[in-house]
Design brief:
The protein has helices at about 5-10, 85-95, 110-115, 135-150, 220-235, 250-275, 280, 295-310, and strands spanning about 35-40, 45, 65-70, 75, 100-105, 125-130, 165, 170-175, 180-185, 195-200, 205-210, 240-245. It has about 325 residues and is an alpha/beta fold.
Length: about 325
């Protein structure tokens, strides 16, 4: 697609542009992004992403990313939004530990979570993703990479690194006296969502299955997302690390806010369909009562309505 791609064109395109901007901002000069990591629980270090869309200035460092240190090895989750973001993450790991980086979790298909993976190729880790991720990368990867390069500058997005280990249901890995459970979810935020639970600290890392403050982007299944939130609540986690928002939250409280938006989106879309309101008009009315609760609401709600309408229209 051309560089002049508009938000409306993007909304009707085959691929979701979640966490990419509505217009290119090539005039914005890059600014240094300090790799400020917070230890939210013993051995779990997280960098909060900025509540923005990708720009040349922020280098797509917009997702919460981090690493978990075990007795024997390190797991990365997620890899970051571009090669430079991944390199900053790798440098932060090396400032904390010399243990081998053995695993890199790619929690789902969206660019702000995967394009830093190239920074870890010299470590020869196992790259982990959902069983659907290879297919999704084949369908979307080149498009995402091209569009991100237009934003950041030629070839700065980083290579598209495919998973070497895929998870279809659940997978347990051990970092040395530290057991982590990876769960592959049914379509929800995307069709490629993987969450992580650290048993040592009862910490849940649901990635973008949990948004806080920044409006969620629907790219999988609305009803599925609501169901997956309910399933995650049964873990009784001591803390949760959202994909976007504060570096740690009480899961129940954060999930309740997200569920409120998703439920409003579902119920009001169903009402619009039942009333014979077309999809274009629905984008102007559905869930607008939620506007003041979410950053970037006007950038994403219309697309969420379109996705919800397409899903619910043939119930």
């Amino acid at each position: 697609m051309p560089a002049s791609l508009t938000r409306r064109q993007a909304l009707t395109a085959a691929f979701c542009l979640c966490c990419l901007p509505s217009r290119l901002r090539a005039d914005a000069a890059p600014r240094a992004q300090p790799a400020a990591f917070q230890e939210v629980a013993p051995g779990i270090h997280i960098r909060r992403g900025v509540d923005e869309d990708a720009t040349r200035a922020n280098q797509d460092a917009i997702a919460n990313i981090g690493f978990i240190i075990g007795r024997d090895a390190v797991l990365v989750t997620d890899a970051g939004g571009c090669l430079a973001d991944g390199q900053a993450l790798r440098a932060a790991i090396r400032a904390h530990t010399g243990k081998p980086i053995r695993y890199v979790l790619l929690s789902h298909i969206h660019p702000d979570h995967i394009f830093g993976a190239g920074a870890f190729l010299p470590d020869n880790p196992t790259f982990i993703g959902h069983a659907n991720l290879p297919q999704s990368m084949a369908a979307r990867g080149a498009f995402y990479q091209s569009h991100l390069d237009e934003i950041l500058g030629r070839q700065k997005s980083g290579p598209l690194v495919r998973p070497t280990l895929t998870v279809a249901t659940m997978q347990t890995i051990d970092l040395g006296d530290r057991r982590l459970t990876l769960t592959a979810h049914a379509p929800a935020h995307t069709s490629t969502d993987v969450s992580l639970f650290d048993h040592a600290t009862c910490t849940l890392l649901p990635a973008d299955l949990l948004f806080v403050g920044r409006i969620p982007s629907l790219d999988g299944s609305l009803t599925g997302w609501i169901a997956e939130l309910a399933a995650l609540s049964k873990l009784n986690a001591a803390r949760a690390i959202p994909g976007h928002g504060p570096v740690q939250m009480d899961f129940s409280a954060a999930a309740a806010l997200l569920n409120h938006y998703l439920t409003a989106l579902r119920d009001q879309t169903r009402a619009a369909i039942a009333s014979g309101i077309g999809i274009d008009k629905a984008t102007m009315t559905v869930a607008t009562s939620e506007r003041k609760k979410w950053a970037l609401f006007d950038d994403y709600n219309s697309r969420n309505v379109i996705e919800a309408y397409r899903e619910l229209e043939w119930e």
